[in-house]
Amino acid sequence: MRNASCKRVTGETDISMELNLDGTGCAAVATGHAFFDHMLDLLARHSLMDLTLQARGDLEVDAHHTVEDVGIVLGECIKNALGDKKGIVRYGCSYLPMDETLTRVVMDLSNRPYVAFRIPEGGLPDAPNFPLTLCEEFCRALANNLRCNLHVEVLYGRDGHHIAESVFKGIAHALRQAAAIDPRAAGALPSTKGML
What is the tens place of the pLDDT at every residue in 78-113? Predict the structure, then answer.
């Protein structure tokens, strides 16, 4: 089993996390922000990762530090759980429809952090209590600490809740593919460089 636990304590947040990449999608998440809890629950369920998370943050200011720091800890935990990455698929791609919304997420567990987060010109609506910019901050924190390439593009959408949901579910499905063990790889590292 590929498990990891991480903790992060700053002047703004206090976060403890445990995860199992080879789980069944069970989640026990408490960040103090109900919508963010919903997004993290979706991420766990759709990636089939078991996730336990306790987070306290300065929500009286806003959700920014909590969302960013949870992304940091989640990235660290997934990176640790992946270990040497031998035998993984490495790449994952998802087109995630959520009613009127469609989002594309592509991931490479390359050990090279890069984030592209794109929305249509003219912008998109926010969820009622979760600005779309927080989705981007989460993606940036996750990718920088997981050390992956992460490309997220909301192709279209009208409902802010659906847009955020499509981003988190899309990440979940791309991660599930990329982190999966490929039985045909026979434990080989998926790189011609000899390292990731």
Answer: 999 999 999 999 999 999 999 999 999 999 999 999
pLDDT of residue 186 exceeding 90, the answer is no
Taking the alpha carbons at both ends of the chain, their separation in whole angstroms is 20
CA distances to 18, 20, 61, 106 from 49, rounded to whole Å, are 10, 6, 30, 18
Cβ-based neighbour number of residue 100 at 10 Å:
12
pLDDT tens for 28-47 read 999 999 999 999 999 999 99
CA dihedral sign, ordered 67, 128, 159, 48: positive
Q: Are 161 and 87 in contact (CB under 8 A)?
A: no
Structure tokens at 123: 């912008």
Instruction: Say if strands 149-156 and 114-118 run parallel, antiparallel, or are unpaired.
Output: parallel
Asked if 72 and 145 touch (Cβ cutoff 8 Å), the reply is yes
Spatial strand order of the sheet with 27-30 comes to 3-9, 13-20, 50-57, 27-30
Please state, in angstroms and as integers, the Cα–Cα distance from residue 84 to each residue in 12, 26, 183, 195, following that order: 32, 25, 16, 9
Q: How far apart are CA 13 and CA 26, in angstroms?
A: 24
pTM over 0.85: yes
Find where tokens 């997420």 sit: 105
Beta bridge partners of 13: 57
Nearest to 21 by CA among 87, 102, 66: 87
